[in-house]
Design brief:
Blueprint: H1 2-17, H2 20-54, H3 57-66, E1 75-78, E2 97-102, E3 107-111, E4 117-121, E5 125-127, H4 129-134, H5 139-146, H6 155-160, H7 198-205, H8 207-219, H9 228-238, H10 243-260, H11 262-270, H12 282-288, E6 290-292, E7 304-308, H13 314-320, H14 323-348, E8 354-359, H15 370-380, E9 391-397, H16 403-410, H17 416-421, E10 422-424, H18 427-437, H19 456-462, H20 469-473
Parallel strand pairs: 7-8, 8-9, 9-10
Antiparallel strand pairs: 1-2, 1-5, 2-3, 3-4, 6-7
Helix pairs in contact: 1-2, 8-9, 8-10, 9-10, 11-14, 14-15
Pfam families: CRAL_TRIO, SH3_1
Domain SH3: 71-130
Region (Disordered): 48-72
Length: 485
């Protein structure tokens, strides 16, 4: 009322001395000034009321801003004991609870109750679900809590072919990268994630199925190790994503592996044991057979196995070991190869297989011994059914004309998968086929490679490095690789 009155009186006085245009300008100015004053007064009253009601809102807000942000760190429980073998890794005790600092890779970065930080394989960890719901702080945990899968990639599907597309869901989550032996800085807020790998994509996409298969494995008496999920993935791949069929296959295979001692062989192989240490008859078999297990790597990174037939005597084999010893030795060879293939797969980010080279130069009718075939060979011919998705290329080189007859004697004992993987090469095309399968530096000179004698690394992996050199030189005297050992 006072303001309105005053404005009216001033306007009346000015109208007497100013022109209509000047009076209008002055009225506009007065209106703007009045509105500005009213706005500031209203804001002041609101501010005073809020302060009186809340007991000092500005002070509280300032205190909250200055208070340190307390982040909840997700936790996980160790599923079993694990001994660290590297300065970057961390030992685990069963049921131990650890803080998860980074779970974006196959090896998680964790911290134990003593404050030690290191990496552990993720398949040894069980997340504490309450913490996952309350504190999805790492990228992978956040995705699981929010159920928001990142964009799908198709490079893994192209690599393994359409037969395994069932193993990838319609929209798989972004995969963790495989461990490359690099430790992230624990003090950093986040770890840089390297480019995702094909194998990591498959493991992540089938993560829930692999957890259930792990339960099947343990329920059948099997053991969990650092590369168990890669081993289980081979069953899913062989069954084209059919989890139920893979579980049945896994259960039966685990019971068989326990009965024949293969579980212990894998444990020793992963611990770095030589092939000779896995079965007592391995050395005897390799002394009478021109075989070189894990002789370097094929081009896909998997272990390369070379078997020559010149000088091969089935009778000598049967005189040296029993059929049970022969089977045990071949199981040891498969377990040694599988451990190497799984470890290589984890390091390279791509599922690798074992490859075979069979050189048939010198093949003769005397080598086709029916007693050997029906009591020895028949026991090992179907071993591939116990090692799904493990055998890759099977290259039969330097095959003579008699090869067709010899192959006819064993064809029925071989699985359809093995027969489909076999590639038979005549002498004229053998060297090119061998170099396409493996680099020259991983092949003996007798097969067109660069190795004049067995490399020291191969001798160590096998166990030949412990054998007296004079004894080694005397072996395989009738073969083209004599003195190679």
């Amino acid at each position: 009322m006072f303001l309105g009155h005053t404005g009216t009186m001033i306007s009346s006085d000015l109208n007497a001395s100013l022109s209509p245009v000047s009076a209008l300008h002055l009225a506009v100015v007065m209106l703007v000034v009045w509105r500005a004053f009213a706005h500031r007064a209203t804001a002041y009253l609101k501010s005073s009321s809020a302060t009186d009601t809340d007991g000092g809102t500005d002070a509280v807000a300032s205190e909250q801003r200055n208070r340190p942000h307390q982040r909840m760190i997700p936790k996980a429980e160790a599923a079993g004991d694990l001994q660290a073998r590297d300065r970057h890794h961390l030992s685990l005790r069963k049921n131990e609870v650890l803080e998860v600092l980074d779970d974006s890779k196959l090896w998680w970065l964790v911290r134990n109750s003593q404050g030690d930080v290191g990496k552990v394989p993720y398949n040894y960890m069980r997340l504490v679900e309450d913490d996952v719901a309350k504190a999805p702080r790492t990228p992978a945990l956040a995705r699981r809590a929010a159920k928001e899968p990142p964009p799908r990639g198709s490079s893994w599907q192209r690599s393994f072919g359409s037969c395994f597309q069932k193993c990838l869901p319609a929209s798989p989550a972004s995969p963790p990268a495989s461990d490359q032996g690099q430790l992230c800085d624990a003090s950093a807020k986040s770890c840089a994630t390297p480019p995702t790998s094909e194998l990591a994509a498959a493991l992540h996409a089938n993560r829930e199925a692999l957890v259930r298969l792990r339960d099947v494995l343990e329920g059948a008496g099997g053991e969990v190790d650092a590369h168990t999920d890669i081993y289980l993935l081979r069953f899913l791949l062989a069954e084209k994503g059919d989890e139920a069929a893979a579980a049945r296959w896994l259960h039966d295979t685990t019971r068989w592996r326990l009965s024949i001692g293969a579980v212990e062989m894998r444990r020793q192989a992963l611990a770095g044991a030589a092939l000779f240490d896995l079965h007592p008859d391995v050395r005897a078999i390799l002394s009478v057979c021109q075989s070189f297990p894990a002789h370097g790597r094929a081009r896909d990174g998997g272990p390369l196995n070379i078997i020559l037939h010149d000088g091969f005597s089935p009778t000598r084999v049967m005189e040296t070991v029993s059929s049970a010893g022969f089977l045990g030795s071949m199981v040891a060879l498969m377990e040694h190869n599988m451990a190497a293939a799984d470890a290589t797969s984890a390091a390279s980010g791509s599922l690798t297989r074992m490859s075979f080279v069979f050189c048939y130069e010198g093949l003769s009718l005397s080598m086709i011994n029916m007693r050997f075939l029906t009591t020895y060979f028949v026991k090992v011919a179907g071993l591939d059914s116990r090692y799904p998705s493990l055998i890759g290329a099977v290259s039969c080189v330097n095959a003579p004309s008699i090869f067709s007859f010899a192959f006819g004697a064993v064809r029925g004992m071989l699985s359809e998968d093995i027969r489909g993987r076999m590639r038979v090469e005549k002498p004229a095309t053998s060297r090119a086929a061998l170099l396409a399968l493996a680099p020259a530096c991983h092949l003996p000179a007798a097969l067109g490679g660069d190795c004049e004698s067995m490399p020291a690394a191969v001798a160590k992996r096998t166990g030949w490095d412990r054998v007296d050199p004079a004894e080694r030189r005397g072996l395989h005297a009738d073969s083209k690789i004599r003195c190679y050992l």
